Task: structure prediction
Amino acid sequence: MNRETDFLVIGSGIAGLTFALKAAEHGRVLIVTKSNISEGNTNYAQGGICSVTYEPDNFEKHIQDTLVCGAGECDLDAVELVVRRAPELIKQLINWGVKFDKDQNGRYELAREGGHTEYRILHHKDNTGYEIERALVRKVKKHPNIEILEHHFAVEVLTQHHLGMLVKKSTPDKECYGAYVLDLKKKRILTILSKFTILATGGVGNIYHTTTNPSVATGDGVAMVHRAKGTIENMEYIQFHPTALYNPGERPSFLITEAMRGFGAILKTPDGNEFMQKYHPMGSIAPRDITARGIDNEMKTYGYDYVYLDVTHKDPKDIISHFPNIYEKCLSEGIDITKDMIPVAPAAHYSCGGVKVDLNGLTSINRLYALGETSYTGLHGANRLASNSLIEAAVYADQAAKHSIPMLDKVELQYNIPGWDYGGTSHPEEMVLITQNYKEMQQIMSNYVGIVRSDLRLERALKRLAIIFEETEQLYLTSTLSQSLCELRNMIAVGYLIIRQAQLKKESVGLHYSIDYPSTITAKEF
Ligand code: FAD
Ligand code: SIN
Result:
């Protein structure tokens, strides 16, 4: 079955929805999203969204903090673009109905997180992402030019390959014509033709055993572009959030926002001693790579399963008013954060790399844009500055809309794309074949390609992943298509990209730390 649209938006977090609202003023927009519209990393974001708002903060300081955190690997043009355009996009979000907290004088209340030298994080309590997603969903649902298909899973982006041509990485002028999309309820595959396709498929956290990301974050966009022979970069830089609630078996791991450390909470060992000063002069609010590695080192050296975050010295009323959701969640686990220290451990959180895009969000494939966490813009370099990702998604969504809209009338749909070939794929797969490989992949990635790596660990990881890859490809060729099989296949591709790009790095930089190259380039030295 064929569908047609001007803009096909894959994913419904801040990136996809911001783009949709802008594009819908000029053409028809079709949003496909694999779960309920609100499910995605955006909905779980806690700390807030960065923007220079009041003095003494200024653009130069935000730029400098981003560059320092990125350990010398940021793209200066991307950093300048996001930082300087942030206030305009924040104003747009507010006009669209997003409510950020204000103080008694009506000024926005700004928070601070790891690596920031100023208070510059706009927030809504401790559930900023939920508030942003709420406002955006409300607006897209009302827009007459936007159609939303929930429970629709994008399987592949369409290129000249689907016209029978040999497409390689080196093929010039690769083009995207839309996507094959699996309707998860009716179990049929739609061919959706579009003038412009926007990948806003979010993060990759589920390739690791412990993650703050919801289950939809399986790197689908990155894997699809990899298979379409587009450019993927920076995948070695996976950010582990230092403070996820230690609660074995809970998935995703519940985040304890870094804003709590900005508010004064202190990391301590189980015997109550501060330790972060050993690793960085900023102590508990050091950049994330250093904090996560510091905690990892304490845990491995002394055999702890977790460390503690202590906020008990702050006024209980202030704690509860700033962090109401964290307070409630911890209380439900028997931890009263106004009296008890919180057990925390690092968890996979954010992919600094992804589908390479230019300053307009355009990928190496014409008419295909990538936005938000799926993309690699160059903003984050080797380590993302906290709360810089929501704003990156908003700014690049605007850039991509401004770039694509003027071309709308010049682009034709490609009607020669064949429908999905169901041939030879009639056997339902055995679930255990998928779930076992899923578990193995997560073990491989967590144990060999986590916070600390080595040449040997990466080599072992690659060998083991290759076996799982072969088995899964075989299954893919012979089974009826399902979400779990597609996601496993995508996560294996993403794992492969992380390992290969990590192997090419013969030094430790930012989030990529190898014991074979111990002299790390971090925010400290840059
Ligand atoms: P997402 O919001 O993840 O949306 C991706 C969408 O794509 C989802 O709708 C998903 O269902 C859909 N999708 C995926 N694959 C497919 C497919 N194959 N077919 C169809 N649909 C698909 N950043 C900050 O700046 N500040 C914060 O305070 C902050 N806190 C965070 C807290 C947590 C717990 C987490 C997990 C992340 C946090 N981040 C924060 C990071 C930030 O939330 C994300 O980077 C950002 O929300 C990504 O937005 P996105 O639109 O790119 O992706
Ligand atoms: C947090 O609230 O600690 C998460 C912020 C982020 O990931 O940017």
Q: What stands out?
A: Residues 295 and 307 are 7 Å apart (CA to CA).
